[in-house]
Structures are given as structure tokens and as C-alpha cells.
Design a protein that fits this description.
Structural class: mainly alpha
Strand order of the largest sheet: 1-2
Number of strands: 2
CATH topology: Arc Repressor Mutant, subunit A
CATH class: Mainly Alpha
Radius of gyration: 20 Å
CATH superfamily: Winged helix-like DNA-binding domain superfamily/Winged helix DNA-binding domain
Largest sheet: 2 strands, antiparallel
Strand content: 5-15%
Distance between the termini: 45 Å
Shape: globular
Low-confidence stretches: none
CATH architecture: Orthogonal Bundle
Length: about 160
């Protein structure tokens, strides 16, 4: 990505960007700890989620996985090797194009992913509003308007 003309960046912009990055890092730290606590490496968890959560119409191939994880093809191959060894996923030949290799989750992989996904969904329910607020400050400033003050969700 090439950086063109740079507009003036105010102290408030730095603070907003730093706050957003902080909220992302806190969530990622939670995610990594949750994955390791469940006995899976974070990148392996991301692979299971990417496979299960592909957009409709996208086949679960190594290429699609590499794209979704922003990694090289050979890195995705090695990652699938590892999750296949742990019996969380398996490779299958495509039914229409036999040259195509599709990756599917096993029942063991699906159960692990469901557990981790529930934990992540619950965590986002707790911290998501702070992430949205931080992003709203950036987007609103870029659009030239003040962000709306969001109400904190009521604790039950």
C-alpha cells in the first residue's frame, strides 16, 4: 500500500487510533488465551473459523483459506496439515472437479469451534461497545462530524 498526500493528523486522531488498536489488542489477547486454554493454537482456531465461516458460495479450499487468513498458499497447506493431524478437519476431493481439494471440519473440530465461538461471542457482547465507540470516533472524525454519545448497555 502506497502512502500518498498526508492530511494533518491531530492529537485527537492519534488518541482515537491508539484507543481502537488497544481495544483490538485486548480482544486478540483474549482470543489467543481462549484458544490456547482450549488446547489449540490461535492460528489453528482462526483456520477452523475461516473454514466454517466462509461466505456463501465460496468453496473451502486451501486457496480460500489462505486468502481469508492473509497467508501464503504453502502456509495454509501446513496449517491444514496440523489441524488434520489433530482430527479437527479433513481433506476431501471435490465432487464436481476431482482435482479440487476441499477442507471440512470433523465433528471434533466443529465441537471445539462451537465452544470457542460461544466464548468469543460472549466476550464481544461484553467489550464490543467499547470497540464500536473507538471506531465511531475515527469514522465520525473522518466524515467531519462528531460521534454520537452511546449509552452503556445496562448490566443485568
Amino acid at each position: 500500500m502506497m502512502i500518498g498526500a498526508v492530511s494533518k493528523v491531530a492529537t485527537a486522531d492519534y488518541r482515537a487510533l491508539a484507543q481502537f488498536r488497544y481495544e483490538i489488542r485486548k480482544f486478540l489477547a483474549f482470543s489467543e488465551a481462549a484458544a490456547r486454554g482450549a488446547g489449540i493454537e490461535p492460528q489453528q482456531h482462526q483456520a477452523l473459523l475461516a473454514i466454517k465461516g466462509l461466505p456463501e458460495g465460496v468453496e473451502p479450499t486451501i486457496g480460500a483459506l489462505a486468502e481469508r487468513l492473509c497467508v501464503q498458499h504453502h502456509t495454509a497447506v501446513a496449517l491444514v496439515d496440523k489441524i488434520e493431524e489433530r482430527l479437527w478437519a479433513k481433506r476431501q476431493r471435490g465432487t464436481i472437479d476431482r482435482r479440487q481439494v476441499l477442507i471440512t471440519l470433523t465433528p471434533k473440530g466443529s465441537a471445539l469451534l462451537a465452544k470457542l465461538s460461544a466464548m468469543h461471542r460472549d466476550q464481544l457482547g461484553t467489550v464490543g461497545s467499547k470497540m464500536v465507540q473507538a471506531l465511531d470516533v475515527i469514522v465520525s472524525a473522518q466524515a467531519g462530524k462528531r460521534p454520537k454519545k452511546r449509552e452503556e448497555p445496562k448490566k443485568r
